[in-house]
Fold this sequence. Notes:
alpha+beta; 3-stranded antiparallel β-sheet; 2 helices; globular; signal; Secreted protein
Amino acid sequence: MTMNSWRTRIGVGLAVGVAAVAVPLTSTTAFAAGPPGAGWVPVGAEAYSSKAACEASELPNARANGYNEVWCDDSKRIMPIYYR
């Protein structure tokens, strides 16, 4: 069994340390953040029977206006609607 040189050990140690710091700094979450912020634009509010019904109904309007996502705030009876 041979011993690696100190130069090799230090180089490997630094590479592992840099990778350990770089991975958390560059990783992102897999879910979309809801409003406010993160690029969401308030577009109005309306009463819907459910969050899913609101988002399904509003998606064609969002796409027609250049947006790709809809988020409805179902914590209120008249749901605020956001596009992104």
